[in-house]
């Protein structure tokens, strides 16, 4: 039997079997409950119409919010960076695919040389009758090579590259959802600050009117000096809160501009027009915790990274085994004239079956395998931790939404009662049946309650955004499969 035949049989058998060393990936189990703990507290108050998860921001019925999120998803620079990372991962996948295929290249050269007759070789050749010191050489070759993936190391590498590309695509989606949620969160915060600033300005006007009344009474000898000074101090206290709220409002506007990929101040005129705080929409059709595994892109990222690390183990184990390669050359070469190329006499060819085996490097291979297994164990723990944190995010968001809505309802009723109480106390003060302290106390309590109500309504809407984000709203799970298939 020819010496190459056993190797050829081994190569053929390996290719036919299509084996790949290393563990085959299996998605790990993630035992989750059938429903969320806070689901029962939210859904009884929800409308019958299912809330949209795909374009969840439309549930707030705020055209400005919808416009801003649309612009952010088109212009945000973090999103542009994430898109570039997907392009890089796609290129890595293309390289891994190419490694499984034969490669070929064409080379050609033409040379002209002039031989010295002073060298030993030149002296010998010069003694030959008819020697020409000028020499020409022409050569054209087609070379091809192919590493035969008998034990699947290259295929495991392709599996890892595919999983990393899918993780990158899911990471882009995760960034997209984070940008949408951040835009909504800043917008709601901005509207909340505008509402609080309006409350503070109204209170400033109220305190100013009160001060004028006290000064009028003082001029008639019906009020003491300390009452004037007390009214002035209370007015200054409310006025001092306005710059703080204004500073926060301007910072929120600047954050919105940067989020939209524009210089600070670009959208200030648009955002300066006051609008109401968006109302948290009713929530239903929340799904189950198990659906988060395919709904939340950050969990898809963690799972795909786990699959990639699993494939890297097989890629490392493949280094234990020999690697076979085929190479061939087909060309034409002549030293006479270019016109003799591609003739029978100028043709040349070769074929090589190569073998490479790291026989005395098993210690390093063992270390690489252990490293790959350690990375896989780390990725598994990270995936399980991501699942737990995802359910925690949903539970916390649902709890915050329920409690903030309850707080808003309570404070709204309290604000209405305190408004009436303040009017009554001021009327009584004008009639002399109540003191200025009573009026100032009523003002202070009303201001605190109105401000707290505005904050509670803001936090309620922000909690709704957090619910949509924690549920992975803002995309269709089918989008990741279509992106990965391209």
UniProtKB/TrEMBL annotation:
Pfam families linked: OEP (PF02321)
Segments forming a coiled coil: none
InterPro entries attached to this UniProt entry: MdtP/NodT-like (IPR010131), OMP_efflux (IPR003423)
GO MF terms held by the record: efflux transmembrane transporter activity
Cell compartments where the protein resides: Cell outer membrane
Recorded superkingdom: Bacteria
Membrane topology: Lipid-anchor
Magnesium is among the record's keywords: no
Presence of keyword Transmembrane: yes
Keywords: Cell outer membrane, Lipoprotein, Membrane, Palmitate, Transmembrane, Transmembrane beta strand
GO cellular component: cell outer membrane
Gene3D superfamilies noted in UniProt: Outer membrane efflux proteins (OEP)
Family designation: Belongs to the outer membrane factor (OMF) (TC 1.B.17) family.
Stated name of the protein: Efflux transporter NodT
Source species: Pseudomonas koreensis
Organismal lineage: Bacteria, Pseudomonadati, Pseudomonadota, Gammaproteobacteria, Pseudomonadales
